[in-house]
Design brief:
Elements lengths: L16 E2 L14 E9 L2 E11 L2 E8 L7 E8 L5 E9 L5 E9 L2 E6 L2 E6 L3 E4 L8 H9 L6 E5 L3 E14 L2 E11 L6 E6 L4 E5 L3 E5 L6 H23 L7 E10 L4 E2 L3 E6 L2 E6 L9 E12 L1 E6 L3 H9 L2 E6 L4 H13 L6 E10 L9 E3 L2 H13 L4 E4 L8 H10 L3 E4 L7 H7 L3 E3 L1 H5 L14 H4 L12 H13 L2 E3 L2 H9 L18 H6 L10 H23 L14 H9 L7 H16 L14 E5 L15 E4 L2 E3 L1 H4 L14 E2 L1
Parallel strand pairs: 10-11, 17-21, 22-23, 23-24, 24-25, 24-26, 26-27, 27-28, 28-29
Antiparallel strand pairs: 1-10, 2-3, 2-16, 3-4, 4-5, 5-6, 6-7, 7-8, 8-9, 11-12, 12-13, 13-14, 14-15, 15-16, 17-18, 17-19, 19-20, 21-30, 21-33, 30-31, 31-32
Helix pairs in contact: 5-6, 7-10, 11-13
Length: 680
């Protein structure tokens, strides 16, 4: 399912504000005609971005499909003589099907716009660029041309915020004796992380780049990996710099004084204590006022120390790694990634170059089809799938994850081979199969609750490689959970001791988010977020086209909660993960599990001790002498209120200390709680 809202790669925010001058020749006089770009994921072209430029009118056609889904957008941008938009119309559908009808107009000093959050307007004295909500990345180059004329490359934008253009480096590419001179840039300021693009010497867009995808000028697709490497480098440099600035390794023992500890064995808090850390391990738990010689003392101020938590449905990247650590998530289970990129990330985290959770790797195995998720290892036969298991075993992965386009008939052989290696197996339900078949094949865990429930509502031949795997959730309200078909699946879960990775928070967003309304799960954090992130937390994902759809999705979500509650009551292990990038959404995932019957204390144990045991991490999961120093400090009592984990003042990841309130401003986030008092 994979969505990561904390650092969406396509939110290429745009800006420029400059004093209007007398009319002059069109800013696009040298940029007429057609331009075509290829959208590339995992070395595979999955769509296009096309422009037709006639004077100051730009038509944009943007469409790609990866993993059976993606946006389809048409844009018309009309620029004035100074190169600023006076009309901007965006129509189409988002990745998950939400209808887009976005419009912006500038009439003299009156600017007005309508997007998925509603309509607004303001009076401007200077021309401003509008930060579109749903448009293509093409407008990056238009705003960049204005930014290049602005002092310090720094300007204000509508609806809110200030962005900055940073020139990164000059480079060139050559194809068939044609050399193009290029400059790489970063745009930052309205979202959590910068976005990167490349322009040629004529200030024409050449590529939009990120560690996960590339949009590149037609004819230069072979340079995709080379271009993506620039984004990987810039992102790594940014987070290496943050690590150098904000990671505290004191070089001597550190004592966290005057704290209560969460004890997963008693599901309660201890009395006040102090915890002594030497290097990367806890060496003792002492009286609250104990002091040794030459120690750094962090005053816990009667707060609570909790062991580091496990995000069990992650797709790791450097852009989310630090944010998760700051949120108390010190361990990841990666559910599928670019294997080379992930390997490099793990090396950098383990060496201390980057901040990040400890990572357990699952090898992604996907079938070749027009709907493939271009990730991990793609296979076209059972023989190739078994070879992929061999490869992941040889690379040290602890298990494998099977995906939508794989042939479900291959699952028994894949599971058998993986289990012979002692490897774990989980995954989606392959298209045209059902959860019962995967349970009988021997899956150790089922991924996403909708993947299991779809088998109870789909008709034979319906294709879940498409958005049907989401839109069919509208059928859930009619389900009788006591029916034989449902109970047959439940019995298989129990008999096989198969766990469930439900990713409930993403289902809440998919089924309950509505245009113009703040997502329920972000109400506690939205005011702390940068402008564009706030705007994104008010947009629906699904196409809710009628009151009937609205009711069906809401009732369908309630049926999901009922299903998971039944699973919990039957003793089926619920594994907490988000597929939303973790961090703040991980807090929401745990909060939602209270609907299933968990107490806050049980949730803390589930997120820490239980998941450490599940993954075989004997050195983690609780706070005790000899264990690794992964824990976080909060001022409140999470046993009484699980929301207390949202106000973290300190995190230790293996004896390296981070203070969220010190780091968050680098992401445009307003801190949630003060730093603790530290005596060095």
């Amino acid at each position: 399912m994979k969505v990561q809202f904390l650092y969406l790669p396509f939110v290429l925010v745009l800006l420029a504000s400059c004093k209007q001058e007398s009319p002059k020749a069109s800013s696009l006089v040298h940029y007429q005609g057609d331009e075509t770009y290829s959208v590339i994921f995992g070395n595979t072209v999955v769509g296009h971005l096309k422009t037709h430029i006639d004077g100051d009118i730009i038509q944009v056609d943007y469409d790609y499909k990866n993993n059976g889904r993606g946006p389809t957008m048409k844009e018309t941008i009309v620029l004035n003589n100074d190169g600023f938009p006076v009309q901007w119309d965006i129509n189409g559908n988002t990745t998950f099907g939400n209808t887009v009808e976005e419009h912006y107009t500038l009439n003299k000093t009156a600017a007005s716009w309508t997007d998925a959050t509603g309509s607004d307007s303001t009076t401007v004295t200077n021309a401003l660029w509008y930060v579109n909500q749903s448009g293509s990345p093409y407008s990056t180059i238009l705003t960049a041309r204005s930014l290049l004329k602005s002092p310090d490359y720094l300007l204000d934008v509508l609806p809110a915020g200030t962005l900055q253009l940073t020139e990164m480096e000059s480079t060139s590419v050559t194809v068939d004796s044609t050399t193009v001179d290029l400059t790489t840039y970063a745009i930052s300021g309205a979202d959590l992380n910068p976005s990167y693009f490349i322009a040629d010497s004529d200030q024409r867009l050449f590529a939009v780049i990120s560690p996960r995808f590339v949009i590149v000028r037609e004819g230069f697709e072979a340079q995709e990996k080379e271009l993506r490497a620039y984004a990987e480098k810039y992102s790594a440099e940014r987070f290496e710099s943050l690590q150098k600035k904000y990671a505290h390794t004191y070089g001597k023992n550190v004592r966290i004084a005057n704290v209560q500890l969460f004890d997963p064995n008693t599901l309660a808090l201890t009395g006040l204590s102090s915890v002594l850390v030497d290097g990367d391990r806890i060496v003792s738990i002492d009286a609250p006022d104990t002091r040794g010689e030459d120690e750094v003392v962090i005053d816990g101020a009667s707060g609570t120390l909790v062991a580091g938590m496990y995000e069990m449905h992650a797709h790791a990247g450097d852009e989310g790694a630090l944010l998760n650590v700051l949120a108390g998530v010190t361990s990841f289970r990666d559910m599928g990634n670019d294997n080379e990129v992930l390997d490099d990330l793990i090396k950098k985290i383990n060496s201390g170059v980057l901040a990040g959770p400890r990572i357990h790797r699952l090898g992604f195995i996907e079938g070749q089809s027009e709907y493939s998720a271009n990730n991990g290892i793609l296979v076209s036969s059972e023989e190739e799938a078994l070879a992929a298991v061999d490869s992941y075993h040889d690379m040290g992965f602890y298990g494998v994850k099977l995906y939508n386009s794989m042939n479900g008939d291959w699952a028994p052989a894949i599971v058998k081979k993986a289990h012979e290696y002692g490897m774990f197996v989980c995954g989606h339900v392959p298209a045209f199969s059902n959860a019962n078949a995967m349970l009988r094949a021997g899956f150790d865990e089922m991924t996403h609750i909708n993947q299991t429930m779809l088998g109870w509502v789909l008709e034979p031949g319906e294709d879940t490689r498409t958005l049907l795997r989401l839109t069919a959730l509208k059928r859930f309200p009619a389900l009788d959970l006591n029916s034989p078909k449902v109970q047959e699946s439940m019995d298989l879960f129990v008999q096989n001791k198969t766990a469930m990775d439900p990713t409930l928070a993403i289902h809440e967003v998919l089924m309950k988010a509505r245009n113009g309304e703040v997502w329920e799960g972000t109400k506690d954090i939205i005011e702390h977020m940068p402008p564009n992130a706030q705007r994104g937390f008010k947009v629906a994902l699904a196409d809710v086209a009628s009151p009937q759809d609205d009711q069906a999705y809401r009732e369908g979500y309630n049926k999901i909660v009922e299903t998971l509650k039944m699973m919990k009551e039957k003793g089926i292990l619920i594994v907490p993960g988000t597929d939303l990038g973790g961090a703040f959404f991980y807090h929401r995932e745990l909060e939602l599990y209270q609907q299933l019957g968990y107490t806050p204390a049980e949730l803390l144990k589930l997120a820490t001790y239980d998941m450490a045991h599940y993954l075989g991490d004997e050195d983690l999961g609780s706070i005790a002498p000899g264990k690794l120093a992964d824990f976080f400090l909060i001022p409140g009592n999470p046993v009484e209120d699980i929301k207390a984990i949202k106000t973290i003042s300190m995190v230790s990841r293996g004896g390296t200390f981070y203070y969220p309130s010190e780091v968050y401003p680098a992401f445009g986030i307003q801190p949630f709680t003060p730093m603790p008092v530290i005596e060095e």
